[in-house]
Design brief:
This protein is 38% helix and 13% strand. The chain has helices at 32-40, 56-68, 86-94, 121-130, 143-152, 170-185, 213-223, 243-253, 259-274; strands at 2-6, 46-50, 72-77, 99-102, 133-136, 158-160, 192-196, 228-230.
Length: 276
């Protein structure tokens, strides 16, 4: 079984702009071995290590971790897509066997159309050609933009992180579900997939994990078991609760699936999508 989304970091590297002392539960150094301790308790033996800082140094750091820890099956890194030599950088990224994808931190950018600007299209085309995945760290407002992007680049594999980070409130669910349904319906099943991850931390602080059950169920209904990847988003998850609580809830949501369908969500889809 594979955890399709986890992080590690060293505070002294000082390029995590978002990671401040105010986030006390996770404001500490986190090693791959710390994640392994959480994951192995649930039989999860491999994972995809995802960037947490928008720097080239972060990508190099994560690749070093992957080389040192065989349980890291792949890395989703970061690169400056607006750099003059960005297309050449894509080729350099693709030459690293453990680097499986790139993730611009779209949720943190003020312009929701940033990823659609003309200067970035050759970079996305190069990613598609070289087999690098685009991890889309987005919110509901970005979903139509990602749909447009997939129409421009039909050969690009896109992974929607954290169910597009919905607002966890009944009033916001319909618009999110409608946009997600359109994205799933209008895109190629093998090219655009979604992570069941990162939902609990979108809920108001102090809420039990069960508050996100309807969103987990909606993701399964919208994407189906062949297009959903399970991830923990650990240790960010600890802002809301434990690895075990999240894992338990999601296994309950998946409980009516066949063994083959469960295996898809819990490992095979990640293996296929990221070519692990």
């Amino acid at each position: 079984m594979i955890d399709a989304h986890f992080h590690c970091w060293q505070l002294a590297r000082a390029d995590y702009g978002w990671l401040t002392p105010e986030l006390a539960p996770i404001y500490r150094d986190v090693a791959v071995a710390d994640w392994q301790q959480q994951a192995l308790a649930w039989g999860v033996t491999g994972g995809v290590l995802v960037q947490a800082a928008p720097t080239a140094q972060e990508t190099a750091f994560l690749l070093q971790q992957a080389h040192e820890h065989p349980c890291v099956l792949g890395v989703v890194g970061w690169m400056d897509m607006l750099a003059p030599d960005a297309v050449e950088q894509v080729a350099q990224c693709a030459a690293q066997p453990l680097l499986k994808g790139l993730r611009p931190m779209l949720q943190d950018l003020s312009d929701p159309d940033w990823i659609l600007q003309p200067a970035i299209q050759p970079v996305l085309a190069a990613m598609a050609q070289s087999g690098l995945v685009l991890d889309a760290l987005i919110k509901t407002v970005h979903i139509p933009r990602i749909l447009k992007l997939t129409q421009i680049h039909p050969d690009l594999t896109v992974v929607v992180d954290h169910g597009a980070k919905p607002v966890i409130g009944a009033w916001a669910m319909d618009a999110w579900a409608q946009a997600m349904t359109e994205l799933a319906r209008e895109t190629h099943p093998a090219r655009v997939v979604c992570k069941m991850s990162g939902l609990w931390t979108e809920a108001p602080a102090g809420q039990p994990v069960d508050v996100v059950r309807p969103w987990c169920e909606a993701l399964l209904a919208i994407w189906g078991p062949q297009r959903l990847l399970w991830g923990s988003d650990w240790p960010v998850l600890e802002l809301s609760g434990t690895y075990s609580s999240w894992r338990k809830l999601t296994l309950e949501v998946l409980s009516n699936l066949s063994a083959q369908e469960k295996n898809a969500v819990l490992g095979e889809n990640a293996r296929r999508t990221y070519r692990l």
